[in-house]
Amino acid sequence: xxxxxxxxxxxxxxxxxxxxxxxxxxxxxxxxxxxxxxxxxxxxxxxxxxxxxxxxxxxxxxxxxxxxxxxxxxxxxxxxxxxxxxxxxxxxxxxxxxxxxxxxxxxxxxxxxxxxxxxxxxxxxxxxxxxxxxxxxxxxxxxxxxxxxxxxxxxxxxxxxxxxxxxxxxxxxxxxxxxxxxxxxxxxxxxxxxxxxxxxxxxxxxxxxxxxxxxxxxxxxxxxxxxxxxxxxxxxxxxxxxxxxxxxxxx
Length: 251
Description:
CATH topology of the largest domain: Aldehyde Oxidoreductase, domain 3
Shape: globular
Oligomer: single chain
Order of helices and strands: EHEHEEEEEHEEEHEEEHEE
CATH architecture of the largest domain: Alpha-Beta Complex
CATH class of the largest domain: Alpha Beta
Number of domains: 2
Radius of gyration: 19 Å
Low-confidence stretches: 80-90, 245-251
Number of strands: 15
Largest sheet: 5 strands, mixed
Mean pLDDT: 86
Distance between the termini: 38 Å
Structural class: alpha+beta
Strand order of the largest sheet: 2-1-5-3-4
CATH superfamily of the largest domain: Molybdopterin biosynthesis MoaE subunit
């Protein structure tokens, strides 16, 4: 059988490619494929405790049985619309989530999510700042495993609606080049009461930053670097088994 392997973020530089087709014997499992990839790119071994594996846009354990035509993704630690009304400039969107490549209009989204029964709308507006650890930032570039990112964002929205007493939630993330002062991610939560809206908004951005496969590259006056990613939460399996940690390249 043949599967497609995709590398994302810093792993594209480690492996020296972004996609490869791999021939495997019938009955092969995900862990065996990853071990084969490590032999082909030995530098991957140093990332073993910080890479998550996904099959067909879902995080998967090493013992996942692979099938012909599967799409496998190697995912390093991540950087990190409403029903019937996707945010402006959405390139991909679902009921409560969107990926966009043009500036995010936070005012328009805040107005659009409001309904007469709402007593509060809480926004998290993530903005590109002009420095990181004392280095002057020129601009950022965001990339994503887009199909999986959108799916994960929609699942986060569904979880937020179940966990908190809120009426609606939108998650919007920008991709591509972003200039200083532009919005990279916007989360809008509407509810009858402010406490639930604040709690849901905080949970949504914190979880998005740990689980949704979107990566940030920072460009400085003296070079560029992939931004530090947070360790995956315990429920996300990693390639080496056990709990996740930051990669060696991320401090």
